[in-house]
Amino acid sequence: MQIAILNAGTGWHTDDLCRALAERGHAGRVLPYEGLVARLGTGRGLVRGLSVGAHEILDADAVLARIIPHGSLEQMIYRVDALHWIEKRGVPVMNSPRAIERSVDKFYTTALLQEAGLPTPETVVCESATAAMATVLAMGDAVIKPLFGSMGHGMVRVSDPDVAFRVVRSLEQLRIVFYVQRTVDHGGRDVRVFVIGGRVLGAIERRAPDGQWRTNVSLGGSARPFELPSAWEQLALQATAAIGADYAGVDLLPSHDGTVFVLEVNGIPGWQGLKQATGIDVAGAIVDHLASRVRASAAAADRIAELPA
């Protein structure tokens, strides 16, 4: 297979994917979203397509969509629309742009999880600073999160009314959408589950550093292998299905009262912590699943071609 890996640049994850592709006899090329050039129109002699430099993406067997870099609203829409067009042209994209759109937006993710009947923490999303402040005061202990964000960056936990007021007013100047969630007493631990192709590949328990509440490994949290109870496994599978992802990192938050909340579904998940803790070849599993997608797509195209005109 010839695989295009669209990403913000190179790094550990793209290196791991290229390694897994090469070990299976496939070729991977990392291409930046910022380099996308679409050529459109009708007329004789026009060369149409979607490329990065000399590499035509529509000729690839599949596209692995990794981190979409920050940019203006127009840039972000263009990049995701490009993924939609690639998929429309019959090139498998993983994860699909639809799944990425659903998972990158915490409001939309939480709404879909709720509609799927999954347990989620009490959450209020609004544009009004007044409504956000009233929510924080009513909850008593809350976490204000960026609507778009990952790895725990930008989250602020507030319980003191004066601190909450200053935080909310400062954020108001940025014209953000407030995503306010009641703090769950989780004892400084959560569980990250990696799901791919409708099955759980592995899971880790993450613990926050002493005196901290964020468990993200990127922020100093520790990780160890975790054996999922069957009920927790079903939560992770249902959450992944709710956003329509081929693969995802699902964060489960077990509270002290026994409730297990689905906190987040990451449609562009990292797996360095999972691999280090468990030794699981996550990139290999992603490549294997992508290969099955390519085979299924080719078989479907052959069946269509065999239909009578």
Keywords:
309 residues; 16 strands; 4-stranded parallel beta sheet; alpha+beta; 5-stranded antiparallel beta sheet
Structure description:
With 309 residues, this protein is an alpha+beta fold. The strands form 4 sheets. It has a 5-stranded antiparallel beta sheet, sandwiched between helices. Strand 15 and strand 16 form a beta hairpin. Helix 1 crosses helix 9 and helix 5 runs antiparallel to helix 6. It is globular. The mean pLDDT is 91.
* Cα gyration radius (Å): 21 Å
- Find the count of extended strands (DSSP E, 2+ residues): 16
- Assess the beta-strand content as a share of residues: 25-35%
Low-confidence region ranges: none
Please work out how many helical segments DSSP would assign.
Answer: 9
Through-space gap between termini: 30 Å
Mean of residue pLDDT? 91
Helix-strand pattern, N to C? EHEEEEEHEHHEHEEHEEEEHEEHH
Q: What share of residues is helical? A: 25-40%
For the biggest sheet, the summary is: 5 strands, antiparallel
Assembly category: single chain
Outline: globular
Strand order of the largest sheet: 14-13-12-15-16
Q: What structural category do the secondary elements indicate?
A: alpha+beta
